[in-house]
Each structure stands twice: as structure tokens, then as C-alpha cells.
Design a protein that fits this description.
The complex is a heterodimer of chains A (112) and B (111).
Chain A lengths: L3 E4 L2 E4 L5 E7 L5 E7 L6 E6 L6 E2 L7 E3 L5 E6 L8 E8 L7 E2 L3 E5 L1
Chain B lengths: L3 E4 L2 E5 L4 E7 L4 E9 L5 E8 L4 E4 L2 E6 L4 E6 L8 E9 L4 E3 L3 E6 L1
Parallel strand pairs in B: 2-11
Antiparallel strand pairs in B: 1-3, 3-8, 4-5, 4-9, 6-7, 7-8, 9-10, 9-11
The chains are: A mainly beta (112), B mainly beta (111).
Chain lengths: 112, 111
């Protein structure tokens, strides 16, 4: 099992550009999450999904959109990137809320 | 609003020492508390998960305790090794079943 994988690992964008981050899990987990991690701060939840076809807002959803068209994939989109979105993005999955979350290796995004 | 604090932000100890990492939270209404390890440039690995009804969990040289009434958890690492060097994060699963994270403690074990 590959667990949770994220694509790409690194990306540099210019302000105003768009991109999509892909998260895939092969553990048949219902729940998937997108977090961002900034220096000196804990992880913050951007959006999450409780199952295929569902999405919900987390703590810091502004400027991001998500889709969960297939159970194994959770996509995070930035429509118009801003320097404030420079961060490391982590995807995670779990069998249900409150259970152990399994994390991907992260995507380091820089917006100039 | 739940807030999670980890002190100290960084810790350096000689190999072989036993050490304690601290995590405090402001709202005792939690579902569970989890400790994670993060290695540079890598994702997070779950170390221990303590349910709100439990007092402690153990895995190998790691022991995590939970005192909900005082809003504290500790991660005890016995006989530390250089391979234990990493950032340790704690996160509480709040009443909305969302993880609220501390900023982490960066641990360096000196050979």
C-alpha cells in the first residue's frame, strides 16, 4: 500500500496563477482532509470531506476550493494564488472522524 | 475556542536521557488527543492516540499521559536516541471532531 500520496511535491507560482494539488489514498478511507502548515504555527484545517461527493469548510477555507469526485482522491484548488498562500500543504485520511489520521508527505508551495 | 500550546518550542538533550514533552489545551471537552512525529521534509507519523476516557498510552519507549481536568498531556521518551530527533506535535480532537494542533517541539538528541 502506498498510503497517502500527494502531487506535486514542490511548486512555485506567480501571484494570480491557479493550480490543483492532488491527494490520493489507497486505504479505502471515508474521511479526507487538507491542512496547511506555516512556520511557528500548528497545522490548520482548510477543507475536509466525509465521503465521496461531499466537502466541508475547515478553519481557513478562503481562497481554496476542493472536490471529492472519487473516494480515493481529494483535490485542492487555488484559483488565484496569493503570497499569503505560501505554505506546506498536507493531505490526510482516516476511517472516520476522531480516528487516527494518516498523512501524505506534503507539498511545498511558494507564491511570488 | 480550543487552543493548544506546546512548551518548549525546542529542546536539546544528550543521548540516553529520559525526557518529557508538554502539551496543554484550554478546553477539556475533547474526544481524544494524538501525538505525532514530523521529520524534516516529510509528512506526519502518528505515535500515540489517547481517548478522552484513558489516562495513558504506551508504545515501546514512548508513553503519553492525559489529564483532561487540567488540560495537559505529556509525552515521555525513555532512553533517547539520535533517531528520536524530530519535531513532535500534539493535536486534540475537539467536540466538532476536528484536530486542533500545537506548534510543536523540535527535539534534538545529541550523540
Amino acid at each position: 500500500n502506498a498510503g497517502v500520496t500527494q502531487t506535486p511535491k514542490f511548486r512555485v507560482l506567480k501571484t494570480g496563477q491557479s493550480m490543483t494539488l492532488l491527494c490520493a489514498q489507497d486505504m479505502n478511507h471515508e474521511y479526507m482532509y487538507w491542512y496547511r502548515q506555516d512556520p511557528g504555527m500548528g497545522l490548520r484545517l482548510i477543507h475536509y470531506s466525509v465521503g465521496e461527493g461531499t466537502t466541508a469548510k475547515g478553519e481557513v477555507p478562503d481562497g481554496y476550493n476542493v472536490s471529492r469526485l472519487k473516494k480515493q482522491n481529494f483535490l485542492l484548488g487555488l484559483e488565484s494564488a496569493a503570497p499569503s498562500q505560501t505554505s506546506v500543504y498536507f493531505c490526510a485520511s482516516s476511517t472516520s472522524t476522531g480516528n487516527e489520521q494518516y498523512f501524505g508527505p506534503g507539498t511545498r508551495l511558494t507564491v511570488t | 475556542k480550543q487552543e493548544v500550546t506546546q512548551i518548549p518550542a525546542a529542546l536539546s538533550v544528550p543521548e540516553g536521557e529520559n525526557l518529557v514533552l508538554n502539551c496543554s489545551f484550554t478546553d477539556s471537552a475533547i474526544y481524544n488527543l494524538q501525538w505525532f512525529r514530523q521529520d524534516p521534509g516529510k509528512g506526519l507519523t502518528s505515535l500515540l492516540l489517547i481517548q478522552s476516557s484513558q489516562r495513558e498510552q504506551t508504545s515501546g519507549r514512548l508513553n503519553a499521559s492525559l489529564d483532561k481536568s487540567s488540560g495537559r498531556s505529556t509525552l515521555y521518551i525513555a532512553a533517547s536516541q539520535p533517531g528520536d530527533s524530530a519535531t513532535y506535535l500534539c493535536a486534540v480532537n475537539d467536540s466538532n471532531y476536528q484536530l486542533i494542533w500545537g506548534a510543536g517541539t523540535k527535539l534534538i538528541i545529541k550523540p
